[in-house]
Amino acid sequence: MELFSAIVGDLVSRSLSFMIDRYLKAEPSVDDSLRRLHQLLLRIRTIVEEAEGRNVTNPGMICQLKVLREEMFRGYCVLDAFKYRTLRRDESRDEEEVSHSFALSRFNQAKRIRFSSSSSNTPPSIVVSMKDLQKMVSGLEDIIGDTKEFVVFLMSYPPSPLYRQPYSMHLYLDKCMFSRHMEREHVIAFLLSSSRDHDHLCAESVEVLPIVGPPQVGKSTLVENVCADERVRKHFSLILYYSAENLDAEKASSFSETCVTKHQNNDAVDGRLLVIMELVGDVDDKAWKKLCSSSPHPQGSKIIITSQSEEITRLGTTQALRLQQLQFEAFWYFFKVLVFGSTDPEEHPRLASMAMEMATELRGCFMCAHIAGALLRDNFTAQFWRRLLAFSREYKKYPFASSNCQDGTSTKDHPRHGWEIAKSKPAKYFLLRNSYQKALAQDDGPKITLADLLFGSVKRRGRFEVLVWKSYIPPYYSYISNCTLV
């Protein structure tokens, strides 16, 4: 009997221990995981913003900063997607205010978010699972544990003159180059280097860096930002700028006459030149050789060519830099800041849910993000946000809705049809075509804006020019289209 009692006691003890262990090892609740993810993201964001506020030049630290920044974007995307996943179902009654042709689709709960391995041109689903949430928390905990040395080295770099406060972040992002820090340092390293590759079409004394990418991806902005760097300005005696559709023999003959002087350093004695060539298409080989041999280039001179055409990569003396549109996670972080400004998105979860849906429709387009962000920020009502979201959904389905911002690869100018969204039922339609970009003076350019068309405040008929968007960062391009009201 005593033996039986001992066996039963041992079994009970083992069962209790097993149950306690299972309880202690149980998966954390959704709220606990969300709270933990939020805490980890705050720590990583603090490190990233501190690093961005310092002139970090070490290539290894720049790579590590890139990883931290990307994981921060991914983490916030998972956090927001998980919080907003059920809010859209509660919006169905409100969506009745929008006309049937503008009805919004609900989330497909069977789909899950696609991360950076997917193309930014494919709009992701914005629903995540508990497994995604826990995996992100675990990954960020590992990353935080590996940042101690990074933070120590970071403190040795001097602060950058740029300073921003959390509540003015949208003003900072509206006037800065977003998420191109690694590319920027890559270009600067090329410009300040002294090595040469002699196997190319141009003169031996000139090194060439091609920068290629789709329209409006930020090629000109990147180069302009690099040229404004003090290290670059001190290194070259003269920085020249040339812009054309392409370079042929006729244009090569007048190249020096059409160049614009962007910067002149009178203190430099070596005479090094930096030539920036902004092209849309290709370069004729004969024209290129003629250009390179037309005048002597001092030792250490450099050329940067930007183009949408992959063909220019053959002119490089170093590997071409290819710019791609932002992945969705980074684009969502950027767009959310632009949309909400100094307002906390946590206070408006339903609006944040709609903003996240809209971000999937904009396909990583910077210009679209600025346009939509300004419209939403100035009209902070759920009714207007639903209409603009419906507009963005229907816009890409329209027969003429194909545009550079949508496909990100076409060099042709497709007509784009739009309509007034100020009212629930469209009363006016317009056609935009023959778009172009131009650096304009402060008061130059069209007075009618895209917002005027969308709000139905344009009274004139016929054809006229419309200011689609004006950039507030160098090179301060204005994007203009010819418009016809129908």
What does this structure look like?
There is one protein chain. The chain contains 18 helices and 10 strands. The chain is α/β, with parallel strands linked by helices and 486 residues long. A 6-stranded mixed sheet has the order 3-2-4-5-1-6. A hairpin with a 6-residue loop joins strand 9 and strand 10. The longest helix is centred in the N-terminal third of the chain and has 26 residues, at 59-84. Residues 199-342 form the NB-ARC domain. Belongs to the disease resistance NB-LRR family.
What are the main properties of this structure?
10 strands; 6-stranded mixed beta sheet; 4-stranded antiparallel beta sheet; alpha/beta; flat
Write the layout of secondary structure elements.
Blueprint: H1 2-24, H2 30-52, H3 59-84, H4 130-145, H5 148-154, H6 169-173, H7 181-192, E1 206-212, H8 219-227, H9 230-235, E2 238-244, H10 249-253, H11 255-258, E3 260-264, E4 273-279, H12 285-293, E5 301-307, E6 321-322, H13 328-340, H14 349-361, H15 366-378, H16 382-395, H17 404-407, E7 416-419, E8 429-439, H18 450-454, E9 463-470, E10 477-485
Parallel strand pairs: 1-5, 1-6, 2-4, 4-5
Antiparallel strand pairs: 2-3, 7-8, 8-10, 9-10
In short:
It is built from 18 helices and ten strands.
Considering DSSP H and I runs of 4 or more, what fraction of the residues is helical?
Answer: 40-55%
The DSSP helix count reads: 18
* Chain oligomer state: single chain
Low-pLDDT stretches = 95-123, 163-168, 398-411
SSE pattern: HHHHHHHEHHEHHEEHEEHHHHHEEHEE
Measured by DSSP, the beta-strand proportion falls in 5-15%
Largest sheet: 6 strands, mixed
Structural class: alpha/beta
Average predicted confidence as pLDDT: 77
**Tertiary shape:** flat
Rg measurement, Å: 27 Å
Distance between the termini: 98 Å
Number of strands: 10
Domain NB-ARC: 199-342
Family: Belongs to the disease resistance NB-LRR family.
Domain Disease resistance N-terminal: 8-94
Protein name: NB-ARC domain-containing protein
